[in-house]
Amino acid sequence: MALEELKEDVWFPEFQRLVDKLLLAMDKVPIKDVFDDLEGEMIFSFEQRKQQYEAMIDTKAAWARMIGFTPMYALIFMYLVIPLIGMSFTQMEVYYEQIQRL
Predict the structure, then answer these.
(1) Are 26 and 3 in contact, with CB atoms under 8 Å apart?
(2) What is the mean pLDDT of residues 33-38?
(3) C-alpha closest to that of 5 among 17, 26, 18, 19
(4) For 72-83, how does the pLDDT look when each residue is reduced to its tens digit (9 = 90+)?
(5) What percent of the chain has pLDDT over 70?
(6) pTM here?
(7) Which is nearest to 17 in space by CA: 7, 32, 28, 25?
(8) Alpha carbon distance 71, 79 (integer Å)
(9) For residues 17 and 33, what is the distance between their CA atoms, to the nearest angstrom?
(10) SS3 string of the chain?
């Protein structure tokens, strides 16, 4: 009875076809069994969404770790690598001057 009322109220043709199919299948399969499958699909989609959210959180955490350690890497580079390069250039100049004097 509720399906008949729903069929009359709905204007979307594809939904009307779905209601017709439900009316035809109502004799063969109880509606409770149909919605048990729907509940299983809903639980599956919930678990799938949960896994997607966890993967997204892991990705964001990796980006946050990388951004968080960037100042430390920059500090090490500025205090260790840049002075080392500067000292090597001055040493190379001294060596070239010594080679030219020979």
Answers:
(1) yes
(2) 71
(3) 19
(4) 999 998 999 999
(5) 97
(6) 0.49
(7) 7
(8) 12
(9) 20
(10) CHHHHHHHHCCCHHHHHHHHHHHHHCCCCCHHHHHHHHHHHHHHHHHHHHHHHHHHHHHHHHHHHHHHHHHHHHHHHHHHHHHHHHHHHHHHHHHHHHHHHC
